Every structure is written in structure tokens, then in C-alpha cells.
Amino acid sequence: MSLLSSIDTTSTSAIGGNTPGMCQFKYGKTAELTHQNYHQWRRDMEFFLHAEGALDIVLGNEEMPVGRAADPGDFNKRSRKAAAMIHAACSAPVKAYVDTMRNPQAMWNELKTKLDTANSLAGRTAIRHRFNQLRLATGASLEGYIAQLIKYRNMLAGSEQAISDETFRSHLITTLNSDYSSIIDIITHKEPERQTTDYVISTLVEWDNARQARKAEVGYSTNTSTTMTLHQCAYNSDSKSSAGELSGSGSE
Fold first, then answer.
1. pTM of the model
2. With helix as H, strand as E and coil as C, how does the chain read?
């Protein structure tokens, strides 16, 4: 089996705009690495590299075996595979950083240096500011909004700007619109020890899904009722026309 077929990747580049293309591996797909999506890309790639038995090589936790009895063949194969996967999952502008490299650990570290904005104080401050400014827009997906908050929180984990559970929960429930007032009231009146982040998120999502389902049912009922009314009107109209015609033919 060739190296490329064992990696099994295809890349679909986006046409126009700033949306990254997708890179398909045999284990799943991820957006190509750009200057904006390093943290999500890194998490996806860690899973793929782990599945190939190459993550420890990339992170520097596994070194090439040495000594007379050592057989570096398997290590070299996994190392080459990791380098190919990393390169394949980069967008064209980002590939320029690693085009001349063949060592997957060096490639990984170079991409972190160039693209991990959370590495610098200015970058972390900017991320925290973006988190603080996030609000749920009218009509936007609640789950998408929560995912965005979690993304920024993960980016700052372990740093001086880390977002605590309490701060995360407070920001989430105070930035939702008035549609969520009733469920927020229920959440905030629970015992403090029950108000965990997982509880708040799961309760909000379950309530929102139920709300959306009810709206869909009401919409279906309304549409069905309207359709039936229109059909009934058409039937009544046709009946009157037919009655008129029959009446007219009888008078003749």
C-alpha cells in the first residue's frame, strides 16, 4: 500500500472568500489550516495522528530507535505519514511555512509558533476580549453560540486569562435574549451546587430543542389548517359554480 493511499486524503479548496477548504482523511475531515482556525485544526489533527500511531512522534514523545538491534523502519514510516498528513491539511498560504520541512515534529512546532495566537499576551487578551463581546444574535443557533464560547475558553485554558466555570456560566446566561428568560429563571433558582457548567448547557440545549420542536409543530398545524381552508374555499367556490350551472340549465 502506498503512503498516499494509506493516508487517504482529499482536499476541497473553497472558492472565493475566506472559508477554508476541507481536508478528508480516512478517519474524518477537518478544515484546512488557515491563520484563523489553528486551535480547532490542532484538535482534529491530534485525533487523526493518534489513529495513525504518529501523535507521539509529532509531539516529541517518541524518538527513532537506535542501537544494533533497533529497527527504525516502522518509526520512519509513521514519521513520513505524519509529515504528509500535516502538509496535506494546510491551506496554500500556510503550506509556505512548512514546504521545505520533512520532520513532522518541526512542522508541528513551526505551525504553532506562527499561528497559535494564544501563545502571546496580546493574543490571549484579544481572545478574551472576543469572548466578552460575544452575544447570541436573534435567530442564531444556541448550540452554535455555545460552541463558539467553548472554543475561546479552550484557547485560553491554562493561561493567566483562563475563563473559569463561574465566568463561563455567567456570561452564557446573561447574554441570551429574552426568549430564554423562563428557563434562565429555572436554572438560577436551582441549588448552587447543581448549577454546574454541564447542567446549564444541557438544560439550555434541551429546552431550546423542545421549543424549536413546538414551533415546528405549530407551524405545521397552521400550514395544514391554512391549506385545508384554502381547499375548502376552493371546494365551496366550485360547488357554488356547479350549483349555478345546474340551476341555470334547469331554468332553460
1. 0.58
2. CCHHHHHCCEEECCCCCCCCCEEEECCEEEECECCCCHHHHHHHHHHHHHHCCCHHHHHCCCCCCCCCCCCCHHHHHHHHHHHHHHHHCECHHHHHHHCCCCCHHHHHHHHHHHHCHHHCHHHHHHHHHHHHHCCCCCCCCHHHHHHHHHHHHHHHCCCCCCCCHHHHHHHHHHCCCHHHHHHHHHHHCCCHHHCCHHHHHHHHHHHHHHHHHHHHHHHHHHHHHHHHHHHHHHHHHHHHHHHHHHHHHHHC
Q: Tell me which amino acid residue 49 is.
A: L
pLDDT category of residue 252 using cuts at 50, 70 and 90: very low
CB 22 within 8 A of CB 15: no
C-alpha cell at 195: 448549577
Separation CA 44–CA 36 (nearest Å)? 15
Q: Give the CA radius of gyration of the chain.
A: 29
How does strand 22-25 pair with strand 28-31?
antiparallel
Please check whether residue 169 is in contact with residue 197, taking contact to mean a CB–CB distance below 8 angstroms. Answer: yes
Q: Rounded to whole angstroms, how far apart are CA atoms 203 and 183? A: 8
pLDDT per residue as tens digits for the range 142-164: 999 999 999 899 888 888 899 99
Q: How far is CA 68 from the centre of its chain?
A: 48
Q: And the C-alpha cell for 245?
A: 350551472
